[in-house]
Amino acid sequence: MINVFQPSLGEEELEAIREVFSRNWLGYGPRTQTFETEFAAHLKVDREGVLFINSCTSGLFMAMELLELGPADDVVLPSVNFVANANAVAVTGAQPVFCDVDPHTLNPTVADVERALTPRTKAVVVLHYGGHPGEIAGIAALCRDRGVALVEDAACSIASSVDGTMCGTFGDIGVWSLDARKIITTGDGGVIRVRDPELARRAHRLAYHGMVDRSSFTAMADMRRRWWELAVQEIGRRTIGNDITAAIGSVQLRRLDGFVARRRAIAGTYDRMLAGVEGIRLPPPLPAGHVGSHYFYWVQLDAAIRDQVAEDLLERGIYTTFRYPPLHRTPLYRADRHLPHTDEAAETTLLLPVHQGLTDEDVETVVGELLKAVENRSGRAAANGGGGTR
Ligand SMILES: *Cc1c(COP(=O)(O)O)cnc(C)c1O
C-alpha cells in the first residue's frame, strides 16, 4: 500500500527516548524546555511565548479561551477546515461563521474573509491549506485593521513562510500539530505560540491546572515552607507535553528540512509528469516569496469521476483522500451558508500520496495509475453523458 501520509522515525529518535529513560524524568522537564527553545528558534520568535502541549486541538481550544470568546461573538473561519477549529469556537458559545475559499488553492482569500466579517466578529481563524501560505499576510493586515484577533492553525505549514516570516507567526496566536500524520511527529503533540507576553503567561497557567508556579515539575522546586501547597489562580486544564515526546520532537525538528526537501522534489515530479494532462488540474504554483511545506499535493478532477478515480487507485494499492470536508454542511454548527467555491473544491479535489518515505518508483506508480484511472473513467463518463446507448 502506498500511503497518503506516513511518519519517518528511526534510530535517532529511539536514542533520544533512551536518554530520557536513563535520566528517569519523564514529565515536563529539561527536554521539553529544550524543545520549546528549539521550536521558537525555528519560528524566529521569543522563547517565552512558545509552549509544547499534547495536541494541536488542545492548543486551538486554549486559543479560544485566551481570546475570551463568548455567545456574543462571531468567529470567521474557512469551511474547508479541520473539525477541531469549529469545535474550539463553538464550545465557547461563539458562532462559527464559515467563509469561502479560492476553489484551486483551497485557502481563503482576503476578500473571502472580509465578506464574512460582521460587527460581532471577534476573531478570524485560518489554516494554510496543504502548507501553502495563501494570502496570510493580507489577512493579517485586514485583521489588524479591523481590530480582530487572528489565530493561525499552522498544522499543515510547519516549514512554510512568506518573505521569511513563518506561517503561524503572522497572527496573535499560532498552533502546530505533531500528531502521527503530520510532516514531523511526536506521536501526539502540538505547539502553541502566543504573541502577547501577558497572554502567554496565562497560556502557561491554563496548560497546567491554572497554577501560577509549576514547582512540582520544575525539578529545582522552590524550597519555601509547605512546598506542596498549590498556587491555583484560575481554572486550567492539563495539556502540557512531556520529556519523552519532546525528545522525539527535537530529533524530528532537526530532520524537518530534509523531509520538506524530499516532499518538494516529489511535488515537482508530480507537477512535471502531470503537466498538460487533459482532465487533471494541478495545484497553483507558489507565488514569489512563498515557501510551502508540501504537506498535501492535490489534483482536481471532474466531479463526475473524482470518487471513482479514488476507488480505482485504492484497488491498485494507492491510498488517496480529501481534506477537509466542508464544515458549513454540518448542522451541528447552525451555520448554513452558500459557499460555491468550497462546494466545488470539495467535489473535485483529491490528495495524492506525499511523504518523505516515498521512493521515485512509488511516485511513478501513482502517476501511472492516476493517468489510467482518469482516462478510463473520463471515457465512461463521456459515454454515459452522451446518451449512454452502446
Ligand atoms: C491535524 C490537524 C489538526 C489537529 O491536530 P492534533 O494534533 O491531532 O490535535 C488541526 N488542524 C489541522 C489543519 C490539522 O491538519
TrEMBL record:
The answer on whether this UniProt entry bears the keyword Transferase reads yes
UniProt-recorded Gene Ontology molecular function terms: transaminase activity
Q: Which domain of life is it from?
A: Bacteria
Q: Which InterPro entries match?
A: DegT/StrS_aminotransferase, PyrdxlP-dep_Trfase, PyrdxlP-dep_Trfase_major, PyrdxlP-dep_Trfase_small
Q: Which UniProt keywords apply?
A: Aminotransferase, Pyridoxal phosphate, Transferase
Q: Which cofactor does it need?
A: pyridoxal 5'-phosphate
Recorded family membership = Belongs to the DegT/DnrJ/EryC1 family.
Question: What is the protein name given in its UniProt record?
Answer: DegT/DnrJ/EryC1/StrS family aminotransferase
Q: Which organism is this protein's natural source?
A: Streptosporangium fragile
